[in-house]
């Protein structure tokens, strides 16, 4: 540190000598203390600090000016840099994310001749509830419903794309698309956006052409499979173990019985009450749709508001 400022002093002195030799400023060569005013000013500012602090330097970190300790004592130990470069203390980052997770939980269960799909109505952003009455269910056809959790804007865009393609299919073929075909179309739509995917986690439920209940589970880029049940969203980890026990009867020795739509609806209510107790993004109300070959019935069950 001392060597650095000694070099600075000599550079300033040489500059003054050069300027003096060109006639811009008169320099007394016999008395080096009588050099140009700029050299004197530089040395006065440096010596005035006397080992306390140098002139402030600008740093983009924290938006403040920082100063570096300076010592003119050759035997003094070097002092640490006072600027936090984001390595040893709090890292800093400047960036933008196009995605936001708005919370919520969805669930779909297939039966012998029916399918039930449900989702809560809370829409959140961080620790803030944006609305308590936002549906996550979207009717695609008279026998098919899409449940989506994730980023609300991406979910809305995905719904719009699917609605347009269903209208085009109905116009071209004069009939509604079957649940199996809708499942494949949804998978293709998500896969087309795999390099900038929709931040939407989807469950498709409906009744197929044979009258059997069908549930399809998806990931973000279109991989899907037909399953007895599926759950997505912030409360997924709380609902799936319960469904493994009461729906698919895993790790149980008692006889599995066939459940009626009314019994499955009660199970769905209990599942969302359980998830709402553990997940702050699940609550307010659960919207339940019972899909049969004859149509869709919708009910609402109130959950806690806090």
CATH superfamily assignment of the largest domain? Aminohydrolase, N-terminal nucleophile (Ntn) domain
By CATH, the architecture of the largest domain is named 4-Layer Sandwich
**Whole-number count of domains:** 2
Q: Any idea of the CATH topology of the largest domain?
A: Glutamine Phosphoribosylpyrophosphate, subunit 1, domain 1
Number of helices: 6
Largest β-sheet summary? 5 strands, antiparallel
Apparent shape: globular
What low-confidence regions span 5 or more consecutive residues with pLDDT below 50? 18-35, 55-59
Helix and strand sequence? HHEEEEEEEEHHEEEEHHEE
Which structural class matches the secondary elements? alpha+beta
Characterize this entry briefly.
The protein is an alpha+beta fold and 306 residues long. Helix content is 32%, strand content 24%.
Name the features:
alpha+beta; about 300 residues; about 30% helix
What is the topological layout?
Layout: H1 2-21, H2 37-49, E1 57-58, E2 65-66, E3 105-110, E4 115-120, E5 123-125, E6 128-131, E7 137-141, E8 144-150, H3 152-173, H4 179-192, E9 200-207, E10 213-218, E11 224-226, E12 229-233, H5 236-246, H6 261-278, E13 285-292, E14 295-302
Antiparallel strand pairs: 1-2, 3-4, 3-12, 4-13, 5-6, 7-8, 8-9, 9-10, 10-11, 13-14
Helix pairs in contact: 1-2, 3-4, 5-6
């Amino acid at each position: 540190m001392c060597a650095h400022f000694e070099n600075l002093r000599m550079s300033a002195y040489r500059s003054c000598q050069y300027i003096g030799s060109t006639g811009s400023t008169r320099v007394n060569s016999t008395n080096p203390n009588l050099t140009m005013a700029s050299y004197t000013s530089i040395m006065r500012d440096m010596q005035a600090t006397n080992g306390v602090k140098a002139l402030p330097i600008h740093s983009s970190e924290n938006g403040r000016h920082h100063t570096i300790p300076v010592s003119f004592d050759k035997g003094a130990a070097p002092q640490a840099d006072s600027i936090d470069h984001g390595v040893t203390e709090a890292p800093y980052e400047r960036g933008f994310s196009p995605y936001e997770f708005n919370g919520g939980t969805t669930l779909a269960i297939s039966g012998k001749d029916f399918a039930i799909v449900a989702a809560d109505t809370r829409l959140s952003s961080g620790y803030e509830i944006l609305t308590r009455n936002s549906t996550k269910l979207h009717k695609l056809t008279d026998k098919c419903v899409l449940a989506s959790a994730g980023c609300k804007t991406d979910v809305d865009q995905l719904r719009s794309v699917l609605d347009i393609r269903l209208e085009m299919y109905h116009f071209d073929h004069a009939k509604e698309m079957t649940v199996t075909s809708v499942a494949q179309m949804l998978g293709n739509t998500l896969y087309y956006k795999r390099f900038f995917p929709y931040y939407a986690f989807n469950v498709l439920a409906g009744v197929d052409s044979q009258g059997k209940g069908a549930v399809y589970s998806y990931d973000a880029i279109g991989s899907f499979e037909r399953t007895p049940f599926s759950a997505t969203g912030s409360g997924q980890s709380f609902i799936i173990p319960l469904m493994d026990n009461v729906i698919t009867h895993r790790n149980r020795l008692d006889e599995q019985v066939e459940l009626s739509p009314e019994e499955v609806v009660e199970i769905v209510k209990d599942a969302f009450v359980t998830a709402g107790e553990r997940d702050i993004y699940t609550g307010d109300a659960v919207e339940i749709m019972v899909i049969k070959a004859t149509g869709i019935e919708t009910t609402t069950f109130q959950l806690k508001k806090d």
